[in-house]
Design goal:
The protein has 123 residues and is an all-beta fold. It has strands at 3-7, 10-12, 18-25, 34-39, 45-52, 57-60, 68-73, 78-83, 92-102, 105-108, 117-121. The termini are far apart.
Amino acid sequence: QSQFVESGGGLVQPGGSLRLSCAASGFTLDNRSIGWFHQAPGKEYDGVSCINVRAGVTYYKDSVKGRFTILRDNAKNTVYLQMNSLKPEDTAVYYCATAHCWARGTSKTGSNWGQGTQVTVSA
């Protein structure tokens, strides 16, 4: 079964860091564009970042620019989201998915979300 498995979330104090992992299972990433999305309580899914290796493009939501970095390691079939200087408003469940990825945004392709990983930023 082809799926993404997200991990690396947790409880962290404001200003702290986390590194989320998105491991592809049952398929290889190849040159697929991959996006990170989050869903805060009571809110819709929102695109946080994406990477499009074919176009040489990465995208970051304005509120995370300069703090988050998206990385991919095809040898490990994994995409990462390095999250630094975390803020309480980053609290959400984070998901990865195949995505359309362009310089100004990202949108999920496919129909299903994975289980996600919870990030909670609180003192």
